[in-house]
Amino acid sequence: MNAFVQYSVLNVLFAVLVSPLFMSLIKKVKALAQGRKGPSLFQMYYNLWKLLKKEVIYSSNSSWIMRVTPYVNITVMAVAALFVPLILIPQPVYGIGNIILFLYLLSLAKFFMALSGLDAGSAFGGMGSSREMTISALIETITIVVFAALAFALKTTNLHEMFLQILESNMLFLNPVLILISISVFIVLIVETARVPVDNPETHLELTMIHEAMILEQSGKNLALMEWSHAIKQLLFMGILINILFPWGIAVALTQYSIVVSMLAFLVKASVLAVAVGLFESSCAKSRLFHLPSLFTIALFFSVITILIEVFA
Amino acid sequence: MFISKGGRLVRRISLSVAAISCILLLAFSSIVVYQNQALSFSLYQMLPALQFSFFIDRLAAFFILIISIISLSVSIYSIGYIEHYSGDTKKNSLVSLMILFMLSMILVVASKTLFSFLFFWEIMALSSFILVMFEYEKKETRKAGIFYFIMTQLSTVFLLLAFIMIYNATGSFDIAKVSDASPFVFLFLFAGFGIKAGIIPFHKWLPYAHPASPSNISALMSGIMIKVAIYGLMRFVLFVLTPELSWGLLIFGAGVISAIFGVIYALKEHDIKRLLAYHSIENIGIILIGFGLYIIFSAYGLTQLALLGIIGALFHTMNHALFKSLLFLTAGSVVNATETKNIEEMGGLIKSMPYTALFFFIGAISISALPPFNGFVSEFMIFQAFLMSWSLASPMLEVLMIVGLTIFALTSALAAACFVKAFGITFLAAPRSEHAKHAKESSFSMLLGPAILAILCVVSGVFSYQIFSLLGYASLVPNLMIISIFLVAVYAFAFVSLRAFASNNTRIGETWGCGILSQNPRMEYTASGFSEPIVTVFKSVYKTKKTNHRTFFDKYQSIFREGAGEIQLFKFFEEYLYMPVARATDYISRRVSCFQRKDLDFYIACSFVTVLVLLLIMGWLA
């Protein structure tokens, strides 16, 4: 019980505090790829600080949905951070770590966010919500199949147990199935964090936008919370991918030394992944909304292949 | 007539009495569910073989529990709701028939013999038919009523056939184990209960009957009547017949098809009650998926997974009853307040009807299977059964499981999209019509009824782990109470710390409209706009036909003169299944009607020939 409380506090605080760093890092990589200098690595922290000091403007049409959505989002992301061990793998208790519960917690945040897009009565928000729910209906399906493939490969439905198993068995080179799955998880990461080619995080007022359109009416500290929770969500999916592909360095017992090592190890691994995401984004063009299902089909294909290998092997 | 007497007070008293008896039933059935002891008693013997006797075990008590909860809240809701209709006779008959309807459902579930099961089943069918026809002045109601009547009688015919076959096999009318029943018994039972439950392709009566009937009746029909059919299917498949793998596959397949098509059709609906009706089809599909998984996993001896399937199905039965009745009741309040069923003409109701909006919101979260509410828990169990199916011995079934899982996940995600639309367009933003602008919050009883259901939706989700521990199935679900405590704690922490450390200045401004000075509701996103991307992605299912024709002033087609466009949705089941059957029936009856003459001699000759032919056949068979 005590160990679990320590894990919760450590993991959640780490996720909340570190997550903005990787948003800026990806921006920086993209800027460098385009030949620009790019923002500072701490730019997102500055942005959040600025937004927290500004006043909040609510639309006269909006209701309590608009007001609670930022808090619901940050809350859900913080609780979801319990499910993805970033620096320490605990013993699973209370069913925390279950992949279905994890995915549906994220859906809860998305449900509120989509409603807040409709709340102000602006056409942009509605358009964003509509597209977001369309894409999420497709990608959630695929995410579940991807995690089903992971469950079939590792014979458990708990993320904590999965990662522990991968860590203990050095499975990377023995089990090529995990490489297949990580391609799918990478696509899920790109889609869930609203990146090119699905969505463009840089634009605000073009028809390409999905995520940014939904939070267009948010301002001040509410906008800060929305952006922060988006950063945490990205970190969590990065954490899943890292733990599937390269879990070494993560602590399994709570000692001061192992925690510091595991924090540093995670920062290095996540930076590498963030650079990869930035380069991937730079090499793609935004694709049409109705061409996206073909990208999703690739993820579905690899995870179904994985399951078939597991079933028939 | 007795019915034409009595005013508001009489209706109030009779509904309150109904509510109190529901509370008593609730207490009784929860004791039976908790103690897991069966009761049995005999009431009335009509003929030696035909008796009304009752038997209540855990399964029956569980369904009686569901029926009494829903009946309780619908009775309370109806106190306010029926006063919107005019005419004492009409209102009184609505109350009396509604109570008869509730009673008949309880007695179907409690029946011990085939005879009393069928008797009360028919009472249930007839009383609900009259209730559907309540607004018989309207043309669409009459169409819906006849549609419903034919389907429900068809269901009874199939059940009657199955029951006769069971009687032939055992020689008694008891609902008891039959050792060697022919597979037709199962097929007839499946068709009979399937029609009543609204399994695709027998689903067509739901989207007709629900918008036509009063909302409290929709809540009863969708919340519990279709569950009585699920009860019948479970009772007969598990306790009378011996389930086989192929039946499990049939039930599973029907469930998957109903779930996905139900939600896909729901997405394009803008009539709020029809949208909810399609969601009932979807949820019946989910229940059948759980039940089908139970039979499949049992056949392979995987008891833990089978348990997940059946408990998931049963819990979803209860959850669907709770949140669907909640949604129908609140939708009824909204329809009353705005005088339209079209969500495109609503909007902004969260300000004028805050409590109704909150209750609908809780229902929407529950039906979208979002944690920590109850819809999540039951879908979670079914997901868990799918994900843990790696130990299934047959690779082909494994592939089927993956297909099922994919479709089930898609269903659940689309349901969330659909309820973002339903809640967002109905309750949020600015009012889209004059009626919506002047909507008023409902009366107290119309809030109390849904409030009970909303609280139960939250409680049975958050405390699901504790409830299951009490019943002895602790290991099936994660402890959502802990998750909820975390959620509340983090929310409070975030709120308090931002209150203390961030700026608290707020300002009310107008929605930004790209420089337009004042926005009007016509600029808001519409429901059709909202579902358009999904309709486009699934255009092969809808068979959408988009046509437009334009004319131009010049031959280079650059100066636009006028044009028109339309989107046509194709009704697959109506075109290819229902209409051919109807046309064939029509054709045959037209041919047969030439026998109908007016002279007696011809009829006598006909009877004589019939008797002769029958005798010959009997002789040949014997």
Separation of termini of chain A?
A: 40 Å
Main sheet summary of chain B: 2 strands, antiparallel
Radius of gyration of chain A: 19 Å
> What is the overall number of helices of chain A?
11
Structural class of chain B: mainly alpha
Strand content of chain B: 5-15%
Q: Which stretches of chain A are low in confidence, meaning pLDDT under 50 for 5 or more residues running? A: none
Summed up, the helix count of chain B is 23
According to DSSP, the number of beta strands of chain A is 1
Multimer state: heterodimer
Order of helices and strands of chain B: HEEHHHHHHHHHHHHHHHHHHEHHEEHH
> Over all CA atoms, what is the radius of gyration of chain B?
27 Å
Secondary-structure blueprint:
The complex is a heterodimer of chains A (313) and B (622).
Chain A: H1 2-33, H2 43-52, E1 56-59, H3 64-80, H4 99-119, H5 123-154, H6 159-169, H7 177-192, H8 211-214, H9 220-245, H10 256-283, H11 292-312
Chain B: H1 8-35, E1 39-45, E2 51-56, H2 58-81, H3 88-110, H4 114-132, H5 139-170, H6 183-197, H7 205-212, H8 215-240, H9 245-267, H10 272-299, H11 303-338, H12 349-352, H13 354-367, H14 374-387, H15 395-427, H16 434-437, H17 444-462, H18 464-471, H19 480-501, E3 506-509, H20 527-537, H21 539-542, E4 545-552, E5 560-568, H22 572-592, H23 600-621
Antiparallel strand pairs in B: 1-2, 4-5
Helix pairs in contact in B: 1-2, 1-3, 2-3, 2-8, 2-11, 2-17, 3-4, 3-8, 4-5, 4-8, 5-6, 5-7, 6-8, 7-8, 7-10, 8-10, 8-11, 9-10, 9-15, 10-11, 10-14, 10-15, 11-13, 11-14, 11-17, 13-15, 13-17, 14-15, 14-17
